[in-house]
Amino acid sequence: MPDQSFDLVILGGGSGGYSAALRARELGMSVALIEKDKVGGTCLHRGCIPTKALLHAAEVADTAKDSEHYGIKATFESVDIAGVTSYRTGIVSKKFKGLQSLLKARGVTTIDGTGRLTSGTTVQVGDSTITGGKVVLATGSYSRSLPGLELGGRVIDSEKALDLDFVPKKVAVLGGGVIGVEFASVWRSFGADVTIIEALPHLVPNEEESLSKALERAFRKRGIQYSLGVRFKSVEQSDSGVVVTLEDGKTVDAELLLVAVGRGPATQGNGFEESGIALDRGFVTVNDRLETSVPGVYAVGDIVPGLQLAHRSFQQGIFVAEEIAGLNPAVVSDVNVPRITYSEPEVASVGLTEARAVEQYGREAVQAYDYSLAGNAKSEILDTSGSIKVVRVKDGPVVGVHGIGSRVGELIGEAQLIVNWEAWPEDVAPYLHGHPTQYEAMGEAFLALAGKPLHAL
Q1: How large a percentage of the chain has pLDDT more than 90?
Q2: Nearest one of 281, 258, 150 to 198, comparing CA atoms
Q3: What is the DSSP letter of 291?
Q4: Which residues are catalytically annotated?
């Protein structure tokens, strides 16, 4: 491969990298996208898409088990894990081919190979030097573990969990964040006994506390066990399983231990530090315009401190392309990036929790309303409980929306617009929500905060 020059060189073809490439091409730049594995990155191949396919299969299993509740005679026999795998990989394959075709159609030059940053304008791929007027770093993340806890054997990460060719009878999950509770939800639907181990006081500990408590109640009802507020100490493996010991001396026996304690930035061995890129605990430090310590070099996605979410990476990729083009795009703060946990029930949120709003504005300046899905007809049809909680500044805008219940992730689109556009409940209350939909629960919460509750007392 000969040396080549482009207006923009992007190292990494995941959500952040490929979105930057597509937007830059729309803006007239020549673009090279360097990817050592497959474009689409972790999200498409090992994260968001395959895990959500598993979660949908789990929903189908639960529906089959409960079909008589809806007046439908059906029989749940078993989980055909080979069939589930075929369904999951088929979706990933189709999306991968579509993305490849899109990049080609848009005129993005995709370079297969491991790239290494060698200066503020060059990336080395094999024997070739790829030069860019600007460079974007988008190398993504990897599954982390804890000090002294090695992955291997019966101690697995989320990527290994995806590729299991069996459903474990009993599994322990270390970490009660998004990845941990999603896999716990899947395995429980597939018939496994599951125990989650979380060192912090609640599951999904970064969410509104009322949502965390509601998820814990729902999981307890489903038979998912959990240990909260006690740290992991050690694990012993045998031919038949693992024994996990906690710092309080309690033990958890299981066939497997899934380590789901977060993801680390994939920045080592890429030439970043040698090229003058400043790092902090492995993350690339950037200014508010996502430019690194080296002028003309930008970073996006999981290697930038903050939320490690595919749609955040996607937005940052678009942002950087527009920034380089001189369009001065708007900054979206992490707190106003929507967050969804696709367990059963789902958890969705955007903006400040009530506690954070009180810290920022003061107790007297904050008002919140929690609308129960028990009053929502579509939620009753779906047989889900939960709530939508809206947080506002008194005589001011909505600063947070938080929900729990089946399919509430689909409501976050309206919520993120309201929060990011700093709408007041009084602005939103007059607008209609289709009936019967779960969106009506959002409308009811805004009506209540606007001082004119309809179905709520």
Answers
A1: 98
A2: 258
A3: B
A4: 435
